Amino acid sequence: MPANILIIGATGVIGTPITAQVVSAKSSFGRIAILTSKNTVSSKAEVIKSLKEKGVEVLLGDLEVEADVKKAYENIDTVVSCVGRGAIEKQIQLIKWASETPNVKHFFPSEYGTDIEHNPSSVNEKPHQLKLKVRAYAKTIPKDKLHLTYLVTGPYSDLYMGKTGKEEIGTFDVKAKRAVLLGDGNGPVSFTAMADVGKLIVACIQQPSASEDKILIVNSFTATPNEILAEFEKQTNAKWEVSYTSLEKLKEVEKQAWEAGAPYATHATLRRIWTEGGTLYSKPRDNGLVGEPPMESLADQVRQVIAAQTRS
Ligand SMILES: NC(=O)c1ccc[n+]([C@@H]2O[C@H](COP(=O)([O-])OP(=O)(O)OC[C@H]3O[C@@H](n4cnc5c(N)ncnc54)[C@H](OP(=O)(O)O)[C@@H]3O)[C@@H](O)[C@H]2O)c1
Q1: pLDDT classification of 168: cutoffs 50, 70, 90
Q2: What does the alpha-carbon distance between residue 153 and residue 303 come to, in Å, rounded to a whole number?
Q3: Taking a C-beta distance cutoff of 8 angstroms, is the pair 266, 203 a contact?
Q4: Calpha distance 178→88 (Å, rounded)
Q5: What residues act catalytically?
Q6: Which of 152, 132, 138 is nearest to 98 (CA)?
Q7: Domain 154-192+220-280+293-312 grouped into CATH 3.90.25.10
Q8: How confident is the model at residue 203 (pLDDT cuts 50, 70, 90)?
Q9: What mean pLDDT do residues 265-278 have?
Q10: Which of ligand 1's atoms lies nearest the C-alpha of 153?
């Protein structure tokens, strides 16, 4: 039976490429629907129009209202949640309602990031708290009521290799040919390109028995900041101006950011975790479990970042 899929948070940062990949594989699926708000339908009218033109059903509702969500769950077997950080905890209700809806069999909570159970100190990391709460709740749901799959992707290479508002937490500025690298630049980081997150979700839905009840640790490639810089220099055919934010300095910036309530505090913590080796896993990546879909390379990602920054 082809999967009938509901995507929640479909127009967000990662919801957009996930939805695009699901739509591009639509011949292998049944229905593709999104649950979104009235506000999004008016503020992102062009995006919604384009999704409808591609055959996506647009269901309106409030993800905090049980009747709206249960209506959206009608005849759906797979729910992919891509909600943003402001709605992570609200997934507890979304999972509860899914477990009460017999036709919903498989739920992907919004993770798509850092391994939140990486080591004993992970439990204390501020950005992980709500995702940990969701996992703890989900453990109470019997598997015969609902299967859950978490996709641990590490940082999105597209964003890591972009410009940041706060250069000290790392940046790659193509026009200025300037980079700020984290740590000593030699620490490997495991990345997933945003389009590849979508491809991996598609692969998980197509092979439910390989992905159900699992935390899948996936990636596109692993690279050090120095290797990323070398690829930018090669593709721009220029020597870049480089500085480094040591791990010690990054920790200071992180502490100050939280004390000041700065908007980049979460990013500073995540970048510190990645720089400390928090994306290096004790087991091989799980891409093979879902058929090893083709992934982007470091060179592909750098090419795309150069194109995007040159256009802007
Ligand atoms: N690995 C990485 O580098 C990385 C980077 C960024 C994010 N992430 C992770 O990816 C997941 C999705 O994050 P995102 O940045 O893609 O999300 P986002 O763009 O901020 O939001 C995604 C969607 O969530 C829905 N939403 C509804 N109520 C919300 C609320 N109160 N607060 C926030 N969102 C709400 C909205 O959907 P509608 O518009 O349809 O209503 C929104 O478009 C999160 O788990 C996040 O931690 C990982």
Answers
A1: very high
A2: 21
A3: no
A4: 35
A5: 131
A6: 138
A7: yes
A8: very high
A9: 97
A10: 1
Ligand 1 binding pocket includes 109 (Cβ within 6 Å):
no
- With a 6 Å cutoff on the Cβ, whether 155 touches ligand 1 is yes
Domains of the chain by residue range = 5-152, 154-192+220-280+293-312
Give residue-wise pLDDT tens across range 6-61: 999 999 999 999 999 999 999 999 999 999 999 999 999 999 999 999 999 999 99
Q: Are 149 and 213 in contact (CB under 8 A)?
A: yes
* Pocket mutation for ligand 1, best pick of 18, 85, 197, 200 (most atoms within 8 Å of C-beta): 85
Contacts of 311 (CB under 8 A, 6+ apart): none
Is residue 283 scored above 90 in pLDDT?
A: no
User: What does the DSSP 8-state code read for residue 174?
Assistant: T
Query: Smallest Cα–Cα separation from 253: which of 131, 156, 171, 172?
Result: 171
Strand partners, 216: 151
- 56: CA distance to ligand 1 center in Å? 19
Angle, vertex CA 132, rays to CA 126 and CA 135, nearest 5 = 165
User: Measuring from atom 26 of ligand 1, which residue has the nearest CA?
Assistant: 83
Beta strand pairing call for 78-81 and 5-8 = parallel
CA of 230 relative to ligand 1 center, distance in Å:
32
Cβ burial of 34 (10 Å; 0-12, 13-18, 19+) is buried
The span from the CA of 99 to the CA of 26, in Å, is: 25
CA 39–ligand 1 middle distance (angstroms): 15
Fold of 5-152: Rossmann fold (3.40.50)
Cβ of 110 closer than 6 Å to ligand 1, yes or no, is yes
Residue 308 structure tokens = 């995007």
Inter-residue contact 169 to 155 (CB < 8 Å): no
